[in-house]
Design a protein that fits this description.
Length: 540
Amino acid sequence: MDKLNGQILKGMLESACNNLNNHKKDVDALNVFPVPDGDTGTNMSLTFTNGINEVRKSGSDSLPVVAKTLSRGLLMGARGNSGVILSQIFRGFYQSVKEQEELDVPAFSAALSNGSRLAYKAVMRPVEGTILTVIRESSEAGVAFVQENPECTWKEFIDLIVSEANASLERTPELLPVLKEAHVVDSGGSGLLKVLEGFQAYIDGKPFTSDSVIEVRKEEKSEKASGYRTEYILALNSQGKTSFKEERVRKSLEKIGNKLTLIQDGDLIKLRINTMMPGEILTLGQRYGEFLKVQIENIQDELKPSLLDEPKKEEEEKPVEMKEYGMIAVAAGDGLKALFTDYRVDVVVSGGQTMNPSTADFVKAIEEIPAKHIFILPNNSNIIMAAKQAAEVAKGKDVYVFETKSIPQGLSACINFNPEDTVEANINSMSEAISHVVTGQVTYAIKDTSIEGKEIHSGDYMGLLGKEIVFTGKDKMEAVKDLINRMCQEDTEIITLIKGEDATDAECEEIQKYIDENYDIDVDLEDGGQPVYSFIIGAE
């Protein structure tokens, strides 16, 4: 082919999305920190799938429309830092395409290069050895190749781009010591390579297709129910009407959850399932159509009406007067959600380390709150970029995102919020409060690895002080006490101890006693019910 049109671009994107989806577990496995987290591969897969679904729904073969629709879909579906950066790459791609209905190789190369520039701009402090490096070095190599070979074919160009991206990815451990120590390449860069390989496969006439059977991690059994009740009502698209096979989908779902209810009602699919991995459930569903309704709740919240029950619509509420302030916080666990609500938070977005909310989740929350000024507390470093992207997209409201990287920081910000004060005064006082919070967390390792000179084994308990792993061992309580000792300083006035879903009252009493015997510090004990982290500790 001489030029690339909208139909060809759609084929390339479908191939890229399938390749990324098929290998998201491989990308997940590259995550350096051995904690159960939102996972780079899963985040990028969900982000790209949302973009592709929007392209499918548009039904257009116009290249500018495809590029614009993809850009918007990726932006709204972006999850985690890697998903946001991916969305910015294709935002820059669209801005370069503009109204061109066909692209030659130089124009396509320029669009990728512009995507790289925009992705760097989106990150306040770009770090080399990441997805940013891979898109920059591969796109720069593409521009140089086209200049030297103006008559090059599409295959020659795509092969060059993929080769350079792979070489760049292999160099990431030399730029980031933490990757070298863990013997892995950058996970975000690996996800981007899967996208570019998808382009290559389509150009070669062998586009990637979706795996017929999804291999996923089995849900871990425990005596105490945990996880999320995940429900949706989905309208099958034209492709889904022919490819959806109830028994095959049911078998895939049973591998990642239990208490499954799956109903096909004409072109509608209704699902309810309990799972530890709601993201997997959504990824599977998005292959067949468009979500009409989605609901994800902590599995212990049995009072929440089910989408499958189809409750009658309430009478329309009277218009609510616009108030001065509104607040949004991200948290997982019924106790934490209730705590943030008590601290004047209007909407608590479900999520955290195990499930990163999308840009659209934040936009929806912003739209729900009748307030002039809205403060967002992401409470996780991997969620901040999506929150900021939502603040840019939201219209008609002044939205400010605090860079809270932990639950204790978010709670401290809430406590220092004054509804009677000015916006500037609140931002200053809440930011100052955040800066004084030291956060510790106790969780467990999901794989063997080596980080910062520490040998970590699967199943070990880890004490995290901020982002640093300061303790590893087999004893959970020893991990907690080690963190307490590190966090309690001469000027520490209060310790906030947040109990996770797997922690016991006896363990909390032991920690309380340990602090009372060794430190003259007040202790605020809260039952957060959060997954993954047995204890979250805040020191102020």
